[in-house]
Amino acid sequence: MPLPGKEAQQEMAPSSRRRYVEAPADAKIACVLALLYPKDGAEHLVLIERQGHPNDRHRGQIGFPGGKLEPTDDSNAAGALREAEEEVGVPTHQVNLIGALTELYIPVSRFKVFPFVGYSEQRPDFIRQESEVKSILEVPFDTFFSESVRKQKDIRVAKNITLPRVPYFDLEGHVVWGATAMMLSELIAVASKVHLN
Q1: Which 3 state secondary structure label does DSSP give 52?
Q2: CA geometry: angle 164, 111, 8, nearest 5 deg
Q3: From residue 185, how far is each of 45, 79, 190 by CA, in Å?
Q4: Sequence-ordered list of residues with C-beta below 8 angstroms from that of 178, at least 6 positions apart, any chain
Q5: Do the bridges between strand 150-158 and strand 133-140 make them parallel or antiparallel, or are there none, so unpaired?
Q6: What's the fold here for domain 6-196?
Q7: Separation in Å, CA 193 to CA 1, 76, 197
Q8: pTM, entire model
């Protein structure tokens, strides 16, 4: 079946992102991995809380393991797997790639992000890359199907800039918004189709 694509992404887009922006030809490439795995009898998804580096526009945010594509990566998928191994210690051979979601351009950082979905047959022994990752979140995937975790709030993104009524996922006080929430929205839409069929 075709992916839900931008329509599903837009459900969790900030108002500033409601008008789709195409990635310029010179956009930087990043790759992320949405990794599902079993834990305590339920499927879980791993997310990371980024360290607070002053020069990182996404500092402190919750996101998928991932990062910039390197010249040594054979493909975008290889980049996502490498980043997951570096940031949360998941060996590449332990991940079964299921497929890719729709790419997403992030104007503020000029990155075109390619999200991939993977599955591990067992819970990985996570190892946090301390320089990049402040904490690792293990979230039961069913959590995202509850309307109670979908909320809105004003989010301050700079000293004089506050985005009004930004949709986000509330994960026990952790705010998941922006590009990660948009990619999650498509993943949830895909999973909903699978459950219905």
Answers
A1: coil
A2: 55
A3: 13, 22, 9
A4: 14, 17, 58, 61, 106, 166
A5: unpaired
A6: Nucleoside Triphosphate Pyrophosphohydrolase (3.90.79)
A7: 9, 25, 6
A8: 0.92
